Amino acid sequence: MLDLKGREGRLGTALLERLEPALQAGRRFTVCARSWPLLEPFAGVAGTRLVHSVGSGRDLRRLRRLVAGKRLQAITIHERLLDSRSVHELREFADTILTWPINTLERAQELVQLGVDGLISDRPSALRPVLEGEPR
Q: What does the pLDDT look like over 101-123, one tens digit per residue?
């Protein structure tokens, strides 16, 4: 997964140019960005999966306007923005929901029960029981 940082407009295009030989060879890439215009060069490119990153309530409101009847391949969203209602709403337009930073077992279990598909953590060892499917 390539997580693009910043807002440099040419970054997405330059990265796609560099990845082209690997894509032609059948490699697959996930590309993530909080500055969504960086994802535009990858739209419709075979072998790429786009992840729209949402870090604030403002980002979430923008995302709602952006999708307007479209489907997104995936989003990654800050955990503080998630509850049962928001996960249900996001599921209506996103195939995959990832969240960060999940650093406690309790929060990981809550989010898995809500239907989140993936957890991003600074302390994955703390989440081992969830990752291994062990009961609490």
A: 999 999 999 999 999 999 999 98
CA dihedral (26, 35, 60, 53) in degrees, to 10, reads 40
Q: Dump the DSSP string for 22-44.
A: HHHTT--EEEEESSGGGGGGGTT
Determine contact, residues 134/123, Cβ cutoff 8 Å.
Answer: no
Q: For residue 62, with 0-12 CB atoms within 10 Å meaning exposed, 13-18 middle and 19 or more buried, which class applies? A: middle
Q: Does this model's pTM top 0.85? A: yes
Distance CA 70, CA 98 (A): 18
